[in-house]
TrEMBL record:
SUPFAM superfamilies: alpha/beta-Hydrolases. This is BAAT/Acyl-CoA thioester hydrolase C-terminal domain-containing protein. Residues 8-163 form the BAAT/Acyl-CoA thioester hydrolase C-terminal domain. GO terms for molecular function: fatty acyl-CoA hydrolase activity. InterPro entries: AB_hydrolase_fold, BAAT_C. One of its GO terms (biological process) is fatty acid metabolic process. Gene3D superfamilies: alpha/beta hydrolase. It comes from the Eukaryota.
Length: 173
């Protein structure tokens, strides 16, 4: 594999859920990141805890806009690579759609058009490659259809924005 790396330009990052803030940070601060896929995540390095200590991710958005938390918002406008933002409207873990809207607005305000966004009505939080074992709370038809569509979209996004054709291993099946 290492012998093929001289043909590769850039790095791709994919994230799901809480790792979204990490992927955005990597893309914002490391110049070799050419393509980042962000799925149902968050855009700040902060969480809101209840009095009992539980974490309620669904309501983090209000906290990231508060003055005292502005330093936790990942500065994605610094990123040189491209983003694919994915949100499921039936995500009960995060308000993923609100995060996408906020990130798109911020990038546009900074004159950036280095993003695509895909919103899946009726799909739940844990979007992953299709045809695998499903999370018991996310196996309905809209979610399954979103996984099939998204998997193709992710592959297309990485093929378009990463020059990895020569280094790619093809399946033998």
């Amino acid at each position: 594999v290492l012998s093929h790396l001289h043909n590769v330009k850039g790095v791709g990052v994919i994230s799901l859920s809480k790792s979204g803030d990490l992927a955005l940070s990597i893309a914002s601060f490391l110049p070799d990141v050419e393509a980042t896929v962000w799925i149902n995540g968050c855009s700040a390095n902060t969480l809101v805890h209840t009095e009992s200590g539980a974490c309620i991710g669904k309501y983090v958005m209000n906290s990231t806009e508060a003055e005292e938390n502005k330093a936790t918002v990942v500065p994605i406008e610094r990123a040189k690579g491209r983003f694919l933002f994915v949100a499921a409207e039936d995500d009960l873990n995060w308000d993923s759609k609100a995060y996408v809207d906020e990130m798109v607005e911020r990038l546009q305000r900074h004159g950036k058009e280095n993003f695509e966004s895909v919103i899946y009505p009726g799909a739940g939080h844990y979007l992953e490659p299709p045809y695998g074992p499903n999370c018991p709370s996310s196996f309905h038809g809209a979610h399954a259809a979103a996984e099939v569509h998204l998997w193709k979209k992710i592959q297309e996004f990485f093929r378009t924005h990463l020059s990895c054709g020569a280094a790619q291993t093809r399946a033998k099946l």
